[in-house]
Amino acid sequence: MFAAATVQQTTGESRMTDLALPPDPRQHLSSATTRAAMRVQSAVLIAAREFLGVHDFTELLPPIIGPVTDPGVRGSKQVDVDYYGHRYKLMTSVILYKQASLLAFDKVYCVAPNVRLEPLQTVDTGRHLAEFHQIDVVVAGAGYQDAMDLAERLFRHVVQRVLDVCSQDLASVRRDVLALKRLPEAPFSRIPHAVAVERLRAAGHPQSADAEVDWVGERHLSDSAERPFFITGYPKGSRGFYDRESRTTPGTLCNFDLLAPEGYGELASGGEREASHPVVVERMRETGENPAKYGWYLDLMRGGVPGSAGFGLGLERLTRYLCGLPYVWQASAYPKVPGRVSP
Amino acid sequence: VTGLAAPGFPETHVRERARRGAAAVFPPLDAYGRVVFGAQNAASLAEQRGDPLDSWRLVPPVFVPHRLAKLIELAREPGHADVDLNTTIGGFAAPVPMFVCAFGSTEVASADLAVRAAGQAGRLGVPMVIGENLVPVDGYGRSAVEGRVERTMLRRLRAYADQAADGLGGVVVQQSTEDADAEVWNLVYSDPHAAPLLRSGRLAFELKVGQGAKPGLGGMTVVDAADAGRLTGRYFVDHELYGGERALRCGVPGTFTEEILRQQVRLMRNNFPDARVWVKLPPGRDIATAATVAWAAGADAVTVDGAEAGTGWAPSVLLHQAGLPLGECLRRIGRPSGCLLASGRMWEGGRMTRALALGATAAGFGRAALLAVDEDPDEGLMRLVAAATLELRLAISALGKYAARDLDPHDLWWAPEPPPAGSDNAMGSGMATDAVNLAAQR
Question: Model-level pTM?
Answer without folding.
Answer: 0.86
